[in-house]
Design a protein that fits this description.
The protein folds into 2 domains: 203 residues, no CATH class; 183 residues, no CATH class. It contains 14 helices and 14 strands. Strands 1, 2, 3, 4, 5, 6, 7, 8, 9, 10, 11, 12, 13 and 14 form a 14-stranded mixed β-sheet that branches. α2 runs antiparallel to α9.
């Protein structure tokens, strides 16, 4: 029997039992679509979490923790293979006050090497990086942190004298451009919340780029390391002699040249005795967790396909029973058992293939609909303000998932049809020919 004749044999049976075959294909479609959609949720949540992590931090950054971090150790780390930059930041840890045009803020000052900052991707919204000790870059929200201290004191005095005042007026905000402005920076004692009386003048030459997320506020002052001697001198003169608190607290970040090299840099730092954290470790943990989750979802979805296989088994069993006489004629004419078995396996494979194709198309349609509708539903439940900062993908269907689901669906279809096909090869020719039409 030629290949064309084999397909004609299958087509005739399908046409003769359209409703039964349709219901069987529908069951196979539902089982496969359920598997794909269910597993796509795992892929969607994983993608959302990865984006959230990668948006909040630099992917090549390795955070280094130690009690004795210093500039010399930072220089040694620059010699490690695949290290692009080493940013050693020293944060002033005492009381600080800045005053600009009558407006005040208590923003923290951070000292760093801007050459290394530039290599690590320190970006400016406007202006330039500092070139000397008197020049600084301020955070994107520095101007917003400035307030009129005299207006606040007047407002407090008015509130105390008027008991009926229940709400205070908003404080005047600083609305002028800060680039090129010179402000007064003072150090002081936390206990007394008062300056040492030795202010220094700093000029703003740049404004840092806004953080990736709206809820992150950056009102820091970033100064060059050349300002350290002056700050240490003021601190030493102002603090009591028995003070043992250091002026600076340090943190150090190492930046690899590529994400692929973060692990190797991390391992070298660990061998050197440092406690480190890198985003690659977090991503690895997330990937392992979601690998197990997706495997579990695929397993649950496979159960749905196995349930649908009952329909294929019943359909193929009925096909063998109804075509017993026809099978007997084929055997009498010399058809080999392998050919008969192939015909029925071909029919079950066709049912599985058709169900898989429809399921894939249907799954993509449901996935796109879910990603369009669910954000609106969740947004309405949480409120627009609560959901506006979220970028959630509920369903993603990668091609690997389609291949896995298709392979499972077709394999189950073939296994379901194998037993009826095997039964067809065992039909006795004499008994089959005696069967009444």
């Amino acid at each position: 029997m030629q290949v064309k004749d084999q397909f004609d044999f299958v087509r005739q049976h399908i046409r003769k039992n359209k409703l039964r075959v349709f219901m069987t294909v529908l069951a196979a479609t539902m089982g496969t679509a359920f598997l794909i959609i269910l597993a796509s949720v795992g892929f969607g949540i994983q993608d959302t979490l990865r984006k959230e992590i990668l948006d909040n931090r630099l992917v090549t950054q390795v955070e280094v923790y130690a009690a004795d971090l210093n500039a010399e150790k930072a220089e040694e780390m620059k010699k490690i293979d695949h290290v692009n930059a080493v940013v050693f930041r020293q944060n002033v840890g005492t009381w600080q006050k800045s005053e600009l045009d009558g407006f005040t803020t208590y923003s923290q000052l951070t000292v760093s090497d801007f050459k290394e900052e530039a290599k690590a991707g320190f970006a400016l919204a406007e202006g330039r990086l500092p070139k000397n000790a008197q020049e600084v870059v301020v955070g994107h929200d520095f101007a917003a942190s400035l307030y009129d201290e005299s207006a606040e004191q007047t407002e407090q005095a008015t509130a105390e004298s008027d008991e009926e005042t229940s709400e205070s007026e908003p404080q005047p905000a600083y609305r002028e451009a800060v680039i090129g402005k010179t402000f007064t920076y003072e150090l002081g004692n936390f206990n007394e919340e008062k300056s040492f009386g030795q202010p220094i003048q700093l000029t703003i030459v740049g404004i840092a780029k806004a953080p990736a997320k709206d809820f992150i506020q950056d009102s820091r002052i970033y100064a060059d390391a050349a300002v350290i001697p002056e700050l240490e001198s003021i601190y030493a003169k102002g603090m009591p002699e028995d003070n043992e608190e250091p002026l600076f607290s340090a943190n150090l970040n190492v930046y690899a040249d590529k994400l692929e090299n973060v692990k190797s840099v991390t391992q070298v730092l660990k061998k050197d005795g440092y406690d480190v954290y890198s985003i690659s470790e977090e991503l690895d943990q997330i990937d392992v967790f979601f690998l197990a989750l997706k495997a579990g979802l695929i397993f649950v979805g496979t159960i749905a396909i196995l349930i649908s296989s009952i329909g294929i088994f019943n359909t193929m069993t009925m096909a063998v029973t109804e075509r017993t006489r026809e099978i007997g004629v084929m055997k009498a004419l010399g058809a080999k058992p392998k050919l008969i078995q192939r015909l029925f396996l071909l029919e079950s494979a066709w049912i599985g293939l058709l169900g898989t194709v429809i399921a894939v198309v249907l799954s993509y349609a449901i996935s796109m609909l879910a990603n369009f509708v669910l954000p609106m539903i969740v947004g309405a439940a949480l409120g627009e303000d609560g959901f506006s900062d979220l970028d959630v993908t509920f369903s993603i269907i990668p091609w690997q998932l389609v291949l896995i689901a298709s392979a499972i669906s077709l394999a189950v279809a073939m296994i379901s049809g194998w037993r009826p096909a095997r039964k067809a090869t065992q039909i006795d020719v004499i008994d089959a020919l005696r069967q009444e039409l």
